[in-house]
Write a structure and sequence with these properties.
This protein has 13 helices and eight strands. The chain has about 290 residues and is an alpha/beta fold. The chain has two domains: about 5-165, Rossmann fold, CATH 3.40.50.720; about 170-285, N-(1-d-carboxylethyl)-l-norvaline Dehydrogenase, domain 2. The longest helix is centred in the middle third of the chain and has 29 residues, at about 165-195. Bound molecules: NADP nicotinamide-adenine-dinucleotide phosphate (NAP). NADP nicotinamide-adenine-dinucleotide phosphate (NAP) binds near residues 9, 96, 124 and 236.
Length: about 290
């Protein structure tokens, strides 16, 4: 039987992901806090409806997929869904939130007989547009199996990592690495500029050798051209690094990368660069 899915959160990631679900024939309805985005999505995608409330959306799907910003946003969305939810439904959350927030929401939903999978994604806006995301999932194994057709619609790779919260723990590991790579790439390219080396040959050499990585390939050229419009906002990475810091503190695990990146992204946000791409970090390294 085809799974009927409803989508909540049509931001930079959610819009293209919901588009892939529509192309796979799995999407019935969409909801977005700012209704104009949901209406625009509906105009571009046949047979998708926009309900007047989250509770109404909940009544029209077997699985409800969420992609919003942070812990409190996930909680608010689930508050809105609860009056319309019924036993046997499944909620799949692609937002990056803390493992504890995922466990708290799963516990609330369990009391109503509703399943929950935390399934944060990585691969950037480009990965979402191409349907090439990596998806880290936590939850009951049978719920994960139910969600696999969704993951196949916009994922290149997905794995079940353990109980609820495991997906978010995996994402914290990923974000520590993302932050460390961004520190290294932005600092290296600022040094490249200071040395006045030719940019194009250097970018090709760096990408082609042991220093090559996703962030350099996708953002190296744009950051050297002072373009920071596409991608992952500093305010979102700052939120993720706070999750990493809390996990490290719980474990007594010392991370120099998390400390440095937290200080840097806090400064970027304070400098008014919260809505640009995280490669705007090069501004701090250039200074
Ligand atoms: P975004 O463009 O800022 O979109 C956020 C979405 O969440 C919007 O649809 C927004 O609605 C909705 N939202 C926020 N707070 C809400 C609330 N309280 N109630 C209802 N809806 C709410 O963010 P994004 O880049 O798509 O990221 C979404 C999630 O994916 C985040 O957790 C982020 O950390 C994660 N992520 C992002 C990337 C990336 O490269 N951007 C990569 C991997 C993972 P409005 O339209 O009304 O504001």
């Amino acid at each position: 039987m085809t799974l009927r899915c409803a989508w909540i959160g049509l931001g930079a990631m959610g819009w293209p992901m919901a588009g892939h679900l529509h192309a796979a024939g799995l999407l019935t309805g969409v909801w977005n806090r700012s209704r104009d985005k949901a209406d625009a999505f509906c105009q571009q995608h046949d047979a998708v409806f926009v309900p007047d409330s989250l509770a109404e959306l909940a009544t029209a799907a077997d699985a409800i997929v969420i992609c919003v910003s942070a812990d409190q946003d996930l909680a608010q969305v689930i508050d809105g869904l609860l009056p319309g939810l019924k036993e046997g439904q499944l909620i799949v959350d692609h937002s990056t939130v803390s493992p504890q927030a995922a466990r708290d929401q799963a516990e609330r939903l369990k009391a109503h007989g509703v399943g929950f999978i935390d399934a944060p994604v990585t691969g950037g806006v480009e990965g979402a547009i191409k349907g090439q995301l990596a998806i880290m999932a936590g939850g009951q194994w049978d719920d994960y199996q139910t969600a696999e057709p969704l993951f196949d619609a916009y994922g290149r790779v997905h794995h079940h990592l353990g109980p609820v919260g495991s997906g978010q723990a995996g994402k914290a590991v990923n974000q520590l690495m993302v932050a460390g790579i961004a520190e290294a790439v932005c600092e290296s390219l600022a040094l490249l500029e200071r040395l006045d080396l030719p940019r194009e040959p250097m970018l090709e050499l760096l990408s082609g050798g042991a220093a090559g990585n996703w962030f350099l390939d996708k953002r190296g050229r744009t950051m050297l051209a002072d373009e920071f419009d596409i991608g992952f906002a500093p305010a979102l990475l700052l939120k993720d690094l706070k999750i990493c810091r809390a996990l490290c503190e719980q474990l007594g695990f010392d991370s120099g990368v998390v400390k440095q990146a937290l200080a840097d992204y806090q400064q970027l946000v304070d400098n008014g660069e919260r809505g640009r791409d995280i490669s705007a970090l090069i501004h701090l390294k250039q200074d």
